[in-house]
Specification:
about 500 residues; single chain; 8-stranded mixed β-sheet; about 30% helix; alpha/beta; 6-stranded parallel β-sheet
């Protein structure tokens, strides 16, 4: 028998776990939904000092009240912060921590960093200097309006009556629970963990494996033996949309089951495997964060600037401009008579998109100022998570920009990402793009959350009559140029290079 302590997302209380708790108890376990201070229990209203520390103590008390030797604590969304704080204080009492569609908080960060609701972040930033009190002495963040719950995570799969109940029973969130940093002592070993990823909210095991492969030291802990993963094909609120399936997954997690992410010693990750085309080398010049691949050409030549995706950890080595795919594309482009440019930009975190956009703009200016470049014939080619960065160029395309291309791009912020620094909405920018050609390479085996952004973009392109040229690669994966060594994939690379090069003329 396992004792489950269930800690919910912001604005909600123990009531949200009702159906999951019933099913866990039917299976012989005990289930203890926690209503944190100020979250709806009239006996424990928010006070002027209610903050994250208060909620950590709430979870510690819930754990201390149990007699079971096998305690599994589940944190949903915001709930993972008080759960991790409690696990740090009671390491010997907790057998496993479950991250239910929750992020990986970094020590010293407030929960606000992982809040996906942009309006909440802006509101709290605006009143950061305001120490005035409201409602019983506590500054409170009101819950979303009915119909706006998707800002806290996808509502896919929630029955209408459950969504109504969510809106009806939601409680204001004490602001300091979101703004006080999470601090852990780190003096004891952390308990085993399980991540339950809701694919309808933009997460998946495949995406986690990709992030781990990039070498971020913070993510290497996810390959440890005690870490497991499950997926649920639903939105951010599985206790309302798929309670039976969630209860089953929690039972399996308590037994240590689930998918494990492994790394084979000495084996290169997928993005560092060889390029699928055998392309001869060409002269390459490195200057600052830019590499220029030079063709055999007389006079100024057109240029194609390749923009990598991400986020890529700041310490990743090699950096993207040395990844085989970008070296391979650059050589192909140079072989076609154009100058190819690769760069390392500052997209190290989801919040860095604004900085990355500035880096790309600076790179474009440097390339156009190069006397070997025809400044009136430029193409920009975006890859993967770099796809969002095309929005600025679509919204106000300069006359010298002859083509935008994107390969397996992310074309809208994924549901669980949080802030990208400022809005990047390629689909909304499309109507202003005029006749600017857009070459889209679309893979058939794309991660579903990313594929949804591509589908929305192509629908917007159809609606406004944008000049969209789609190259479909039905059997290819995200990052296929070093994964899918097939003739279909090789032909897609050749076709995309030829299409972009064709728009540059000459």
């Amino acid at each position: 028998m396992t004792a489950f302590v269930l800690v919910s997302e912001a604005h909600t209380g123990g009531w949200i776990w009702r159906e999951v708790a019933v099913r866990l108890r039917e299976s012989g376990h005990t289930a203890h939904p926690v209503t944190l201070t100020g979250m709806g229990d009239p006996q424990r209203p928010a006070g002027p000092d209610t903050d994250l520390e208060t909620h950590i103590e709430d979870v510690v008390r819930a754990v201390d009240a149990l007699h079971s030797a096998d305690v599994v604590v589940v944190g949903h969304g915001y709930g993972i912060h008080p759960v991790l704080g409690a696990a740090d204080r009671r390491p010997g009492r907790i057998a496993r921590v479950v991250h239910l569609d929750a992020g990986l908080p970094r020590d010293g960060d407030p929960p606000l960093v992982l809040v996906p609701d942009e309006q909440v972040r802006e509101r709290l930033a605006a009143d950061a200097a305001d120490t005035g009190a409201a409602e019983g002495g506590a500054r409170l963040v009101p819950p979303p309006e009915p119909g706006a719950w998707h800002r806290w995570g996808s509502t896919d799969g929630i029955p209408a009556e459950a969504l109504d109940r969510l809106a009806e029973l939601a409680a204001p969130q004490p602001a300091a629970t979101l703004t006080r940093p999470l601090h852990r002592s780190g003096t004891a070993s952390a308990p085993p963990t399980t991540g339950v990823l809701c694919t309808g909210n933009g997460s998946s095991i495949a995406l986690v494996e990709h992030v781990v492969s990039l070498g971020d030291p913070r993510m290497q802990a996810l390959t440890e033996p005690g870490v497991t993963f499950f997926e649920l094909p639903t939105g951010h609120w599985p206790m309302l949309s798929v309670p039976r399936e969630l209860a089953r997954v929690l039972e399996e997690a308590a037994r240590g089951e689930g998918h494990r992410i492994t790394r084979t010693a000495g084996e290169d990750p997928p993005h560092l495997q060889p390029f699928i085309l055998d392309v001869p080398p060409c002269p390459r010049e490195r200057s600052g964060t830019l590499d220029r691949y030079l063709p055999e050409a007389d006079g100024p030549a057109p240029a194609v600037i390749l923009v990598h995706g991400g986020p890529v950890p700041a310490g990743a080595r090699p950096t993207p401009r040395d990844w085989p795919a970008f070296v391979g594309y650059a050589r192909c482009i140079a072989g076609s008579g154009a100058i190819a440019v690769t760069l390392d930009h500052g997209l190290h975190d989801v919040a860095d998109y604004g900085r990355a956009a500035d880096d790309v703009a600076e790179a474009v200016a440097l390339v156009r100022a190069d006397p070997r470049v025809d400044p009136d014939r430029i193409a920009l080619w975006f890859f993967s998570g770099g796809g969002l960065l095309c929005a600025d160029w679509l919204a106000a395309p300069p006359p010298w920009l002859r083509c935008v291309a994107a390969s397996y791009p992310v074309l809208a912020a994924l549901p669980g990402w949080g802030s990208t620094g400022r809005p990047f909405c390629p689909a909304e920018a499309l109507p202003a793009s005029g006749g600017l050609p857009f070459v889209l390479t679309r893979v058939g085996r794309e991660h579903p959350p990313i594929a949804a952004t591509v589908a929305a973009f192509t629908a917007a392109a159809d609606a406004c009559g944008a000049a969209l040229d789609v190259i479909d690669v039905p059997h290819a994966h995200h990052g296929f140029e070093t994964i899918d060594h097939t003739e279909e994939a090789r032909e897609a690379v050749r076709t995309a290079v030829a299409a972009v090069r064709g728009h540059l003329g000459g």
